[in-house]
Amino acid sequence: MTTPTWSETNQRDTRWSDKKLGFALGGETIGTHGSLLVCFAILAGTEPCRMNKRRMEQGGYGPPAQANWKAVTFALDAEARGFGREVRVGYNSARYCTIPFPETDEARLMEHLLAGQPAIIEVDCVPDDGPAEAHFVLGVGVAEDGTHIQIIDPWTGRRGDLLPEYGCRNNRAIVRAILYEVNDGIDSRSVGPHDCQTLRACAGRNRYERE
Length: 211
Hints:
Elements: H1 30-33, H2 35-44, H3 48-58, H4 77-81, E1 85-92, H5 103-114, E2 119-124, E3 134-142, E4 149-153, E5 158-161, H6 170-173, E6 174-184
Antiparallel strand pairs: 1-6, 2-3, 2-6, 3-4, 4-5
Helix pairs in contact: 2-3
């Protein structure tokens, strides 16, 4: 097994930003609502369009033509294996919308990142203004000071720090954390090419994405 690398992927990249997200009924695209999808794609080492199609095929979204179609499973192993990676959920925290993220979960997250493993982190785009406006970033490490979480933000496609972009403290910025164990270089099953330009169901995310 080799150590995975994380691509700096922007959900607003014109190659996929206007593609429909999953079974969207309301015009949601990867560019407007696709931050979580982009995190999945980075973890699996593929492009958002390919991950979007694979999750539709593998039941990663809720049933089409229903209001809850965006309800997703955070399990990625079936999809990721097709792209040559093993991606397993190690821990999935509760969702803390109105109270600080617990110290025990924060410590667990920091230890996980320091060990070189990634985590999808749900953040509130506009903290302290009421219900959480959900957005997802990929935690990829910890700065040398041992306190600042380093992320790849799908909204910008760049690496940076979680703070102060999404809050003044980690326990205020983090709404939920899903810790993943990723191994690279596994044998992938046969996967056909997927041209992003031909997909009818790909794209989306708004700066104020809500669940």
